[in-house]
Structure formats: structure tokens, C-alpha cells
Amino acid sequence: AGAAMRTEISTAAAFVARLLRAAGGIGEEQLRCFRECLQEALREHYKHHWFPLVPSKGSGYRCIRINHKMDPLIGKAAGMIGLSHERLFQLLPSELTLWVDPFEVSYRIGEDGSICVLYESPQPGGKTSKPLESRSSCKEEWGIGRSSPSKNYNMMTVSS
To answer: Which residues form the Anti-proliferative protein domain (predicted)?
Structure first.
């Protein structure tokens, strides 16, 4: 499963690192280290919970959440670069859900925000989920549905 989940894990880790970069105050070297630590933590955490033939199986286990509690995997990676949970809460959205599943990585900011897809690839066997065009655009999502004071996040380019 290691190689199979590489794209999904790197997409998720890069997304959280971009959120931290947008908040400011963290150097590029620290961000790179954070991203690598988070990738390693996710790889280890998902090792026996990755089911490409049944992508939704284990989805709850692979869900990364910040909701008044810091996700332990993000907290662990941040600790490696000296960021406290308190500082993370200042830098990241107060409510963030990130789903890392085989063939799809998506997120939601705020409990009522739209679900936005960061990465999607066709499943083997030709089963495809909804085309991306049919999903609501997420460009306006960044300032919506946040319970903390709004920060301006000006980004959402995803390259795979």
C-alpha cells in the first residue's frame, strides 16, 4: 500500500503546509520539514487502513480533523519543527476536516463549508466519481464558515 497512497498523502501534507505558509511566519525549511514529517506520520498511520478496492473502507480512520482539538498527526509533525498546539490553532482554520482516501483527497473548512476536492484520480475498473465540474467551486470557500477571525487565504492551486 505504501507506493499506492504516496500521491494522496503528499497532496494532503502539501495542503496543510500551504495553509501554514499562507498564515505566515514560518520559514520554507520549517515548512518542508513539517510536510515531510506529516507525510511520514500519515504513511505510518494509514499503513494497515488503505483499501484501494473499497476506497471508503477506513475513511473515518484516515480523516484528519481540527475541531477545538488539534489532530494528533498534525500536532506531531508541528512538534518536530517546534510549533505548539496553541500556535497551530492561531495559524490553521479552527475547523478543518481533511479526508485522505484512495483516489481522492478532499477537505472542508468550517462545519457548514462545501467539500472541496484537492486530488482525484479514476479508480481502476473504470468506476469514476462525480466529475469535478459538477462540484461547487471552492475558491470562495476560504473565508466562509469560520468561527475564528477571518484570515485572507489567497491560494488554491493544486498540481498533481
So the answer is: 92-111
